[in-house]
Design goal:
The chain has about 280 residues and is α+β, with helices and mostly antiparallel strands. The chain is built from six helices and twelve strands. The strands form two sheets. Strands 3, 4, 5, 6, 7, 8, 9, 10, 11 and 12 form a ten-stranded antiparallel β-sheet that branches. About 20% of the residues are buried.
Length: about 280
């Protein structure tokens, strides 16, 4: 058996003849030991490169991800976090938009709603197709009872406010402590009514005050209803006195329990609602 003798193995050669369509064909001769050496050298180099890639680059995460349950869980968490970040980004954009509308509403509140030709009302002109009935339902009763005893000129000076909710006042007007309104203790979902007729200039959610409505009235009056659970009226809509505009709640950061916070402003300054509310 000459196959196992070293001298015989050393004389064995391997010929490689490429199958190239050419006029001349060349053959390459390699000894058996040189061929084995090249194969072993190539295998070692390939393994070293593979080990280097696995230890330095993140390629191992993609190759062994099927058997690594921890990495799968981490990817799920990353996907959930990305979704939450997207939701928070959309909410932040909504809050920024709400703040811009709130600034517009506060600026609008300093104007007299009877002056329809004021430039600040350009965005409302398309929705205003009739003159607001000043005073709401209570003034309407007076006019029916006394006929023309109340003239048009007097009508512009008189504005009646009614309680916005049927509840006990749990906190009074106290501007020294930063409380520029009154609180009505109510169950969540109790009706909230417009204290007087006017135009809704703001109806949306705010971070501090929750779901809130701002109504602009004649004679530079503004009423504000905060911490609602549901808003029934949209911005730029007309409301009559005593019309239900929202449901009370406990929304927003600045709330200590279910209640309705009610404010009345005139000419950009808060006033005590108790002084002008007609029961």
């Amino acid at each position: 058996m000459n196959w196992f003798k070293f001298d015989y193995l050393r004389k064995i050669s391997i010929y490689i003849t490429p199958n190239i369509p050419d006029t001349s064909t060349k053959s390459y001769k390699f000894s058996l030991f040189r061929t084995i050496f090249y194969v072993v050298l190539y295998t070692c180099v390939a393994w070293l490169v593979f080990i280097f890639i696995m230890s330095v680059t993140p390629l191992k995460d993609f190759i062994f991800v099927i058997d690594n349950q921890e990495i799968i869980e981490q990817r799920k968490k990353i996907t959930d976090l990305q979704s939450k970040v997207e939701v928070l980004s959309n909410q932040l954009q909504s809050i920024l938009s709400t703040n811009e509308r709130m600034k517009f509403a506060l600026k609008l509140a300093k104007k007299d709603s009877a002056k329809a030709d004021d430039p600040i009302y350009d965005s409302l002109k398309n929705t205003i197709n009739k003159k607001l009935e000043i005073g709401g339902n209570i003034l309407f009763v007076f006019k029916k009872l006394f006929g023309e005893a109340i003239s048009t000129q007097d009508e512009k000076r008189i504005l009646f406010f009614q309680e916005p909710a049927s509840g006990v006042i749990t906190q009074n007007y106290n501007p020294e402590k930063g409380h520029i309104g009154i609180d009505f203790g109510l169950k969540i979902g109790s009706p909230v009514y417009a204290s007087a007729g006017g135009i809704v200039v703001f109806s949306d959610y705010t971070t501090d005050d929750g779901y809130s409505i701002i109504i602009n009235h004649d004679n530079d009056y503004v009423t504000i209803y905060k911490h609602c659970s549901y808003l029934l009226k949209k911005a730029r809509s007309f409301v009559r006195q005593g019309e239900m505009i929202a449901l009370s709640g406990n929304s927003g950061i600045n709330t200590s329990g279910p209640h309705l916070h009610f404010e009345i402003w005139q000419k950009g300054k808060p006033i005590n609602p108790i002084d002008i509310i007609t029961k």
